[in-house]
C-alpha cells in the first residue's frame, strides 16, 4: 500500500484488487496518549472519514487512517483538508 503523511494524520491505502466498496479503519497508538485522548482522536478521524470517503474513496481500496500527536490539537478544518489531500494524492 501507499502511505501519505500529513501533520494531523497518516493515510495508508491498500488495493484489494476487487470492485467492492471502499472500507476504512482508524488507528491511534499509545503515542497519542491515554485512552481518553486516543478515543477522541479516533472520533475526530472517523467523523472526517465519513465526510471524505464517499466523495474521494475508490472502489476496491481499504484505507487506514492513523492518528498523530496533532490530531486532537489541530482545528477541524485542517484535519478535513489533510484527509482530502491525502485521498487525492
Secondary structure layout:
Elements: E1 2-5, E2 9-15, E3 23-27, H1 35-56, E4 61-67, H2 76-88
Q: Specify Rg, calculated over alpha carbons.
A: 12 Å
How much helix is in the residues?
A: 25-40%
User: Low-confidence segments, ≥5 residues, pLDDT <50?
Assistant: none
Number of helical stretches of at least 4 residues:
2
What are the secondary-structure elements, in order, as H or E?
A: EEEHEH
How far is the N terminus from the C terminus?
A: 13 Å
Order of strands in the sheet with most strands? 1-2-4-3
Q: Which descriptor suits the 3D outline?
A: globular
Mean pLDDT: 97
Percent strand: 25-35%
Biggest sheet character = 4 strands, mixed
Structural class: alpha+beta
What's the β-strand tally? 4
Task: Fill in the keyword field for this structure.
single chain; alpha+beta; 2 helices; 89 residues
Outline:
The protein is 39% helix and 26% strand.
Overview of this structure, please?
This protein has 89 residues and is an alpha+beta fold. Helices cover 39% and strands 26% of the residues. It contains two helices and four strands; from the N terminus they run E-E-E-H-E-H. The chain has helices at 35-56, 76-88, and strands at 2-5, 9-15, 23-27, 61-67. The protein has a four-stranded mixed sheet, covered by helices on one side. Strand 1 and strand 2 form a beta hairpin. Helix 1 (35-56) crosses helix 2. The radius of gyration is 12 Å and the shape is globular. The two termini are 13 Å apart.
Amino acid at each position: 500500500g501507499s502511505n501519505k503523511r500529513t501533520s494531523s494524520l497518516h493515510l495508508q491505502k491498500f488495493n484489494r484488487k476487487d470492485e467492492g466498496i471502499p472500507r476504512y479503519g482508524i488507528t491511534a497508538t499509545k503515542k497519542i496518549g491515554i485512552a481518553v485522548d486516543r478515543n477522541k482522536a479516533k472520533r475526530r478521524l472517523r467523523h472526517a472519514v465519513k465526510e471524505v470517503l464517499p466523495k474521494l474513496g475508490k472502489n476496491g481500496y481499504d484505507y487506514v487512517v492513523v492518528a498523530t500527536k496533532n490530531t486532537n490539537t489541530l482545528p477541524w478544518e485542517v484535519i478535513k483538508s489533510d484527509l482530502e489531500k491525502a485521498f487525492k494524492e
